[in-house]
Specification:
Shape: rod-shaped
Order of helices and strands: HH
Number of strands: 0
Distance between the termini: 76 Å
């Protein structure tokens, strides 16, 4: 004979699991501290400045 389950409990458990999965994805996507974000932004800015510093005069971007 099949196991009898409470559908209300099963539905709530599935909703909890879905919420936990979404929270895990958000932690991965947005889980960096302010210091980490500012450090990576500073590194990006420095790399862009260094790249622009190596640009030749004839290769200047047209604005």
């Amino acid at each position: 004979m099949a196991e009898i389950i409470n559908l209300r409990r099963a539905r709530k458990q599935r909703a909890r699991q879905d919420a936990e999965d979404q929270a895990q994805q958000n932690r991965i996507a947005f889980g960096r501290s302010k210091a980490e974000r500012s450090l990576s932004e500073a590194e990006r800015d420095k790399a862009a400045r260094e790249l622009d510093g190596h640009r030749l005069d004839g290769d200047a971007p047209k604005r």
